Amino acid sequence: MSRKRRIFDISMPTDLPDVAPSDAPADPPAPSPETFPTGKETRTARRGPMATAISETAGAARERQQVEAQIRAENDALAHEHVRLKKLGLVLETVPLDAVETYKLTRDRAPGFDPELEELKQSIQAIGLSNPIRVEPRADGKYELIQGFRRLSAYRTLLEETGDDTWARIPAAITQQGDSLESLYRRMVDENLVRKDISFAEMAKLAVDYAADPDTAESDPDKAVAVLFKSAGYQKRSYIRGFIKVIARLGGVLVYPQEIPRSLGLALAQRLEEDAGLSDRVKLELEGWDNRSITDELGVLRKAAGLVQQEVESAGEAAPVAPAMPKTPVAGKAKTSFQLERREGRAKCTAAAGRLEIRLSRDFSTIDRRKLEQAVRLLLDNLD
C-alpha cells in the first residue's frame, strides 16, 4: 500500500528587488548558547530549573570569592600597620601588674615615701590613667618597665588597698626590643626632665648608678651626665655633677636627698672637696638617728656647708663661731616612735624634744582649718 505524497502550493513573491552578487547577505550568525536551530527557525532555548540554579550558584561563588579576596587584602594591610605601630610603641594593651618587672633600668626616683603618690592615685581613680606606662616585652612572656614607675606604683597601691581587680591590669605602650640601654635611659630621663619634678640629687644618683651598671659603656659618673642629660643645658649638667660629689660621699646615710635645695647641695659639694674629713663627721651625726625629719637632716647639712653662719652674718648679727662637726654622735636625740592602723592606712608617729610628727597618707590641707585647729588643741590638752 503506497503512501500519498502531500503537495503544498508555495506562492513566491514576484516583486523582489534585484540583488547584485556583491550585495549578497553574509552567512547567518552561529546560534548563541541560548538558542538552537529547529530547521525552519531559530528559537530561544528554555533553561530548566537545575541549569538556572547552577548558574546562580556559580555567580554567587564568584562574588563571594571576590569579597573574600578584598577582605584578606584589607586584613593584611591592617596587620602590617599594626606591626608598624607596635614597633613605634603606639599600640596600647592592658597588661597584668604582676607581669611588669623593674630590673632592667635603675629608677631615677628615690625610694621611700612619695608625698605626691596620693594625689596621683586620686587622679587615676577620678579620671583614669591619661598617660600609659611604657614597657618592653621579655623572652619569658613578661614585660620590663621603661617609663612610668610612679604610675605603676600607684596602680599597685590601689590594688593592695582596695582589692578591686580593676587595678590588676594597667594600660601600657609596648615597645619592641632593639633599643640600646643608653636609649632606654635617655627616654626615662627626658620624660622626667619635661615634667620638671625630678631633683638634682635624684639625677646625680641616676648618673652614679648608670656608671656602676656593668651593662653600660660609661663607668665615670661625670661623663655619664653627658650621656644621660643631653637634653639639659650646660649649667644644669654642671649642677648635677656638683650633686654627684654629695651623693658619692653621703648618699648612704641620707634619707631625704631629694629635698636638698640646689644652693645647699652646691655649697656642701664645695665644702666636701675642701675638707676631706667632713663626710665622716656628717655620717657620725646622722647615723643612728632614726625617724629624723626633713628639717633635721637639712639642718645637719646646712651646718656642714657653713650656711648657718653665713645666714647669721647676712642678717647683721654677731656671727658666733661655728661649732665643729662632732666626732661622736650627739647625745640628747632620744625619740619615741610608734605606728597606728587607720582606715587611711598606717600612721607613723614620732615624738622628740620640741617636735611631734604624724605621717599619714592623707591630705590634711583639705580639712577645715577650724576643725583641724580644734583637733590639735584637744590632742595637746589630753597630753597634760
Automatic annotation (TrEMBL):
<feature type="compositionally biased region" description="Low complexity">
    <location>
        <begin position="15"/>
        <end position="25"/>
    </location>
</feature>
<dbReference type="Pfam" id="PF02195">
    <property type="entry name" value="ParB_N"/>
</dbReference>
<dbReference type="InterPro" id="IPR050336">
    <property type="entry name" value="Chromosome_partition/occlusion"/>
</dbReference>
<feature type="region of interest" description="Disordered">
    <location>
        <begin position="1"/>
        <end position="50"/>
    </location>
</feature>
<feature type="domain" description="ParB-like N-terminal">
    <location>
        <begin position="93"/>
        <end position="193"/>
    </location>
</feature>
<dbReference type="InterPro" id="IPR003115">
    <property type="entry name" value="ParB_N"/>
</dbReference>
<protein>
    <submittedName>
        <fullName>Chromosome partitioning protein, ParB family</fullName>
    </submittedName>
</protein>
<dbReference type="GO" id="GO:0005694">
    <property type="term" value="C:chromosome"/>
</dbReference>
<dbReference type="InterPro" id="IPR036086">
    <property type="entry name" value="ParB/Sulfiredoxin_sf"/>
</dbReference>
<dbReference type="GO" id="GO:0007059">
    <property type="term" value="P:chromosome segregation"/>
</dbReference>
